[in-house]
Amino acid sequence: MSESKLPVSTIPALRFAFDRSLVIAFACIILMLLGGALYSREFLSPEYLLQQLQISAFLGIIASGAMMVILIGHIDLSIPWTVTLGAMMATAVAGWFGETGNLIAIPVGILCGAMVGLLNGLGVAYLRLPSMIFTLGMNAVVQGLMVLHTGGFAPQDHATDAMHFLAVGRPIFGIPNALLIWVVVGAFTIFLLTRTAFGRRVYAVGNREAAAYLSGVNTNAVIIWCFVLSGAAAAFAGVLLAGYSTKAYQAMGDPYLLPAIAAVVLGGTNILGGRGNYLGTIAGVILITLLQSILAVMQMPEAGRQIIYGVVILVMLLAYGRGEIDRK
Amino acid sequence: MNDLRHRIHHNGGLLAAIGLFIVMFIIYVSNHPVGLTAAVATTASNKAVLLALVAMAQTLPVLTRGLDLSVGMVFILANCLASVLVVGTIGEGFAGIALVLGVGALAGFINGAIIVWGRLQPIITTLATGAVYYGIALYVRPGPGGDVQSDIADFATGQLFGIIPTALVVLLAIVLIVWLPYRNSVLGRAAYAVGSNEQAAYMSGVPVQRAKLLAYTLAGLLAAIGGLMLTFNTYSGEASAPIASTYTLNSIAAVVIGGTSLFGGWGSAVGSIFGAFVLRTIEDLLFVFDLDPLWQPLFQGVVLLAAVSLGALRVLRIRNRLELFA
């Protein structure tokens, strides 16, 4: 049987094209750019667009991890301090171990985030606690650790050259490194979700965990891995953010929780799990970044920004279609 | 006898929270350099009542198997509004209070309306409306400041008959005037039914939509009362995102410690009050035992995590593994 006889619906690229939320999300991105262009021509310049993509890369990496957790029907509220943890541990290790420290700084930062994710996963999978409350507690614990860490040991807080290079360097055709990293992370996520058995299991657990369990899926392992990936992604973004702003500081991850969840949900991923694709998350991340940028360029005060931000999320979600009514 | 045993079993979470609070409060008072004077009790209850009110607010949506991530923002919004509206003569002050409470209830109603008629998930809805409410709070009060009618404020944060902290009386009054009638009303019982099993409730003719709307509206109202009390304590308003999110997070923790199930249909707002008292007493204990301030956030985090992990005891009772996935 030749390839061309496969039914159309098995080709993921074509399935994406008919997703309603995806169409709306991308239409909104274009509308926003055009609307911005009316305000100032700068909005369509390649330099502005590249810069927006560079900024959105950080959110994109965090959202990749957040999406894995949302797909299995859970939520990771420990993202803010995991981002900060990744940044602080990476810079601290660079300070403690000198030359070798510079080499291992980035892996250590990511590993610390993965450890937080592992604990989250263990709590949710084996203790069967609601992820919302357990990751919230975890966030508080990590915050406490970081206050102790910075206050008690006065570690190095400025980023290494490598971190700075990864976050702001543009060696290849002027394309920002951060964007390239997001492309790699994104490609890996798409591969994981669409081309591996693990990806299938993620969707299965998100749809109905009991059914997945009865079908022989080790659902606890799936849950733990998703949280580990989320923690690692958040910490990696923290490492890059430290490179971007040249230092790690308290609460640097706080502004990323709501945008990350909003980006995933605006991308059409079901907050209850089981449905969603990564292309939508990309659209959601770009949408959120553009929205923030346009509001900033228009010099909208913080109050107006928050209001518009919340209203846009609500209106878009209502436009995606209301949830199914639960009373068959 | 059987009835008593049934009642104890039914209120296990509440009784555990009350017991924990009493033990911790005794340790706190016996180690306090001054001991239990009216002033110490008033300060402690003024702080604790704020979280207790927000935790009560959080309980109502949780009982319907929902969640309100905007309670902290409504709390802050009421605080900022009160610092503008509750000024002038005592009469004007009370008019301002009514207005603030109305706005709080309206904020809650909007949450409920979007969830019921818009059919969006409570988490994401209240996350987004929370941003809007915070924006409005910031618009009302861009920088910290403002004022509040001092007679009302002094009364609400002082003592009745020189002994009883007024804040506790206010809290008790709210339990008697708002919670108990609600708990025994048709819509209150409907909220429990919806939280247990929404489909079964609907099939039995329970007014599902009105129950949810009322739960979120009352949550907004209670959070606004909390915001008012905050204003009476600080004599000013501040649109602070960290304070808002701290209160939202702690309200969820207080609800869990107070024995209310996050899966809905089980628990009470009175439990949440004691859950809030437990959380506040932990902070006070750290203070009297003179713990290094650097260690305090970590200690609080560990206690919070340990407290919510108590919910894992449920796993031990489950006989069929499949029940785990419910």
Automatic annotation (TrEMBL), chain A:
Highest taxon, organism lineage: Bacteria
Topological relation to the membrane, as annotated: Multi-pass membrane protein
Pfam family, one: BPD_transp_2
One MF term in the entry's GO annotations: transmembrane transporter activity
Localization annotation: Cell membrane
Keywords: Cell membrane, Membrane, Transmembrane, Transmembrane helix
A Gene Ontology cellular-component term: plasma membrane
TM ranges: 21-40, 52-72, 79-98, 104-126, 133-152, 172-193, 222-244, 256-272, 279-300, 306-323
Presence of keyword Protein biosynthesis: no
PANTHER family found in the cross-reference section: ABC TRANSPORTER PERMEASE PROTEIN YPHD-RELATED-RELATED, RIBOSE IMPORT PERMEASE PROTEIN RBSC
Protein name: Monosaccharide ABC transporter membrane protein (CUT2 family)
Organism, scientific name: Phyllobacterium bourgognense
Classification of source organism: Bacteria, Pseudomonadati, Pseudomonadota, Alphaproteobacteria, Hyphomicrobiales
TrEMBL record, chain B:
Chief location: membrane
One Gene Ontology cellular component: plasma membrane
Membrane association type: Multi-pass membrane protein
Lineage top rank: taxon: Bacteria
Residues spanning the membrane: 12-30, 36-57, 69-88, 94-116, 123-140, 160-180, 213-233, 239-257, 264-282, 294-316
Pfam family, any one: BPD_transp_2
Protein keywords: Cell inner membrane, Cell membrane, Membrane, Transmembrane, Transmembrane helix, Transport
UniProt-recorded Gene Ontology molecular function terms: transmembrane transporter activity
Subcellular location: Cell membrane
UniProt keyword annotation of Phosphoprotein present: no
Binding partners and assembly: The complex is composed of two ATP-binding proteins (LsrA), two transmembrane proteins (LsrC and LsrD) and a solute-binding protein (LsrB).
Function: Part of the ABC transporter complex LsrABCD involved in autoinducer 2 (AI-2) import. Probably responsible for the translocation of the substrate across the membrane.
Name recorded for this polypeptide: Autoinducer 2 import system permease protein LsrC
Species of origin: Phyllobacterium bourgognense
